[in-house]
Design goal:
The chain is α/β, with parallel strands linked by helices and about 280 residues long. It has nine helices and eleven strands. The chain has one domain: Alpha-Beta Barrel (TIM Barrel), CATH 3.20.20.140. The chain has a seven-stranded parallel sheet. A two-stranded antiparallel ribbon has the order 5-6. One zinc ion binds next to loops.
């Protein structure tokens, strides 16, 4: 079982130490974990400039030493991006290698996407967002997967959904570019724990991505607290199946590699008793 979206004390919004996650992960049968702490540059974000790479890498080194025989530990990040912060993001990442990077667009003109979903109709919420995503997938190559693609859904189950009909042409261009460059989705189970009750993205978007040649989705809980690490990975597997996918992906030698769902599901089944 892989858990590819977690936040530790190296993120300003989590108080869980990396080693606490490692112990819990081993106890519930997680074999591989990516610590995707935030790297934020948007001026509207209170977490801007918080990332401390040396401190983060010191935690990674300590945990690898202590748990590396039982748990594969990936150095990783959830990097916030938009066209305004792109130069700063590029400069920051230039001398900081990571095993795995999620890129998320959280901010549109200084407004958090989740807040926008509470205030505006879907078409308005996602118009600017999809422009940013399209710019990302056509100009940047620093990331492996796009974070919580329909993030608005976590905050509003109506306006937060992407209107697939209205946005079909632009989504087609985005998914073509993602597929051509081997990019995937962060299949993010945090919205399963909200009224949306499904991962981000859901089966419709996963199916559409597939028809454009998309092949990769990593699975992660986006946990900020200890007891949700590894949760709902079974739901993510089920969602992939519903969308006719037969694989989920993880990182091997710096690249996304697809693994049969049976393999992922088997380890989820073994881990479930401890997940209650
Ligand atoms: Zn995020
Ligand atoms: Zn996150």
């Amino acid at each position: 079982m892989y858990e590819y979206h977690t936040h530790t004390t190296n993120s300003p919004d989590s108080r869980v130490k990396m080693h606490e996650y490692c112990e819990r992960a081993i106890a519930i049968g997680i074999e591989e974990i990516a610590f995707t702490d935030h790297i934020d540059h948007d001026p509207a974000d209170r977490s801007r400039g918080h990332n401390n790479y040396p401190a983060y890498m010191a935690d990674i080194a300590t945990c690898r030493e202590q748990y590396g025989d039982r748990l594969t530990i990936l150095s990783a990040a959830e990097v916030d991006w938009n066209r305004a912060t792109a130069p700063e993001v590029r400069a920051y990442l230039a001398d900081k290698p990571f095993d795995f990077i999620i890129c998320s667009v959280h901010w549109i003109n200084g407004e958090y996407l989740g807040e926008r979903a509470r205030k505006h109709p879907s078409i308005e919420v996602y118009r600017h967002y999809l422009d940013e995503i399209e710019a990302l997938v056509t100009t940047e190559d620093f990331f492996h997967v796009i974070g919580h693609f329909d993030l608005g859904k976590r905050y509003d189950t109506v306006n937060g959904r992407i209107d697939l009909e209205h946005n079909r042409i632009q989504l087609g261009r985005i998914f073509d570019a993602m597929a051509a460059h081997g990019k995937g989705f962060d299949l993010n189970t945090s919205a399963v724990r909200t009224a949306a009750r499904e991962p981000m993205p859901g089966p419709d978007i996963l199916r559409l991505f597939r028809t454009h040649g998309g092949q990769h989705a990593t699975i992660g809980s986006d946990t900020h607290v200890l007891n949700t690490v590894g949760t709902n990975i079974d739901v993510a597997v089920q969602t992939l199946r519903e969308a006719t996918w037969t694989t989920a992906s993880h990182i091997e030698n710096g690249r996304l590699v697809a693994v049969p769902l049976e393999q992922v599901a088997e380890s989820v089944r073994l881990a479930s008793p401890a997940l209650t």
